[in-house]
Design a protein that fits this description.
Blueprint (H helix, E strand, L loop, with lengths): L9 E5 L4 H13 L3 E6 L3 H12 L3 E6 L8 H9 L6 E4 L7 H6 L1 H29 L2 E6 L12 H21 L4 E8 L19 H14 L3 E4 L3 H9 L3 H6 L3
Parallel strand pairs: 1-2, 1-4, 2-3, 4-5, 5-6, 6-7
Helix pairs in contact: 1-7, 3-5, 5-6
Pfam families: adh_short (PF00106)
Protein name: Decaprenylphospho-beta-D-erythro-pentofuranosid-2-ulose 2-reductase
EC number: 1.1.1.333
Length: 251
């Protein structure tokens, strides 16, 4: 069960090599978390992440999970929940894609959408049902400010995150009053492996800053978290710009 501050004693990461997820797990292990499941495609990186967290004092296990194989999600997550209650599920997988290349290769664009949206819908529903069955827990969904309004530079990725964000909000409403808490996290540009080599956007942040915001959001039982917080105001303005004006912006 969660502690008095709303922080989890056990958690499951879907996307076990995500830099944001691992920064979050490190922070939570330093507080109270003791049992960690890292779910992802079997790889040396997944095992290395598990070993690092074991070195911090957590009991860590790995589980095979593939966002692109929704038919396996129920069995994969079922094995984890069968081992004991999970206080927090962190849905952290996703791909950025290559906008220019993916426009010319539609199947690549479909893969981005299937990973970021279709896979998340499947895993999110399976996780939510398991949390509801145990009567408590939080589902934290890593969305993005890119989903707030489609930009020419990344509308494939942005559209997939827009779908994910809307799904997570609706799921949160559906679960209200059940004991299961859904929190949507909307980071801006995050300095990470995913964005390495890209021009940095204003109000850029780090995995560690996102992790800090997630911890605070869990303590407050927030439904939406912006990182950094100033993006809430910025994106409200951007969302309401006339399309003709927005189209001329250097974004």
């Amino acid at each position: 069960m969660k502690d008095a501050f709303g922080l989890p004693q056990s958690l499951l990461v879907l996307g076990g090599t995500s830099e944001i997820a691992l920064a979050t797990v490190r922070r939570l292990v330093a507080r109270r978390t003791r049992t960690v499941w890292l779910a992802g495609r079997p790889s040396p990186a997944l095992e290395a992440a598990a070993e690092e967290l074991r070195g911090l004092g957590a009991e860590v296990r790995t589980a095979a999970f593939d966002a692109l194989d929704p038919e396996s999600h129920e069995a994969a997550l079922g094995k984890v929940f069968a081992e004991g209650d999970i206080d927090l599920v962190l849905l952290a997988f996703g791909v950025l894609g290559d906008q220019a290349h993916d426009e010319r290769e539609p199947l690549n664009a479909v893969r981005v959408a299937q990973t970021n949206y279709t896979g998340a819908v499947s895993a999110g529903l399976v996780a939510a049902r398991s949390l509801q069955a145990q009567g408590h827990g939080s589902l934290v969904v890593l969305s993005s400010v890119a989903g707030e309004r489609a930009r020419r530079a990344n509308f494939i990725y942005g559209s997939s995150k827009a779908g994910l964000d809307a799904f997570a909000q609706g799921l949160g409403d559906a679960l209200h009053g059940t004991g299961v808490h859904v929190m949507v996290v909307r980071p801006g540009f995050v300095r990470s492996r995913m964005t390495e080599g890209m021009a940095e956007a204003p109000l850029a942040t780090t995995p560690e800053a996102v992790a800090t915001a997630i911890e605070l959001g869990l303590r407050r039982r927030s439904e939406t978290v912006w990182v950094p917080g100033a993006l809430r105001v910025v994106m409200s303005a951007v969302r309401h710009l006339p399309r003709a004006v927005f189209r001329r912006l250097p974004v």
